[in-house]
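Changelog-adjacent note: as of this version, every example in the card shows the full chain rather than a window. The one below runs 205 residues end to end.
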Amino acid sequence: MSDAKMSSGLSRRMFMTASVSAAAAMPLVNSPTRAAQPASEKPAEPRDLSAVSMRINKQTYNLALDNRTSLLDALRDHVGLTGTKKGCDHGQCGACTVLIDGKRVLSCLSFAVMNQGREITTVEGLASTDGELHPVQQAFVDHDAFQCGYCTPGQIMSAIGCINEGHAGSEDDIREYMSGNLCRCAAYPNIVAAIVQARDEIRRA
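Full-length structure tokens:
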């Protein structure tokens, strides 16, 4: 074999060997870079806590909550406002009704993180600072519109929403728009009478 052919063959062999070696080494060069990713890029876990700021009864609360925490559980277990009751926990009884930006909401069906920065009113926030009851609260007392009282906070909050929404024009309207709030003691006639009284008083104010 001539020197030229030998030189050419060696050159091709060396070139192919060097190319394969370089390709095989690429993953080894890159692997330390992947392993050294900063911890901040770790994906969020379902149980990670989120910072949530809510206005409840005109007071700001800054909470660290699991993203799956319902507004009802946040109010009762994290803020200590137990006036809002846990009934069915499925949005069927109305015992957990609160007002959010003036509109009635079933707090067991709303996540706390959904209410960041919104104005939430519970039954504890209705009476004035000097202890005077809200007209709906007073009407419930006047008409004995409760017996065991468990559903009463939700009934009162829903009644306020019903009046504010303009759905308390007649007793039939009140029955229709309060139908989502259940009373095991069947005090419905007293509840309707209380809402009529409160509606008229609010209109005169």
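Structural remarks: The helical segments are 3-35, 71-79, 135-142, 152-164, 171-177, 188-204.
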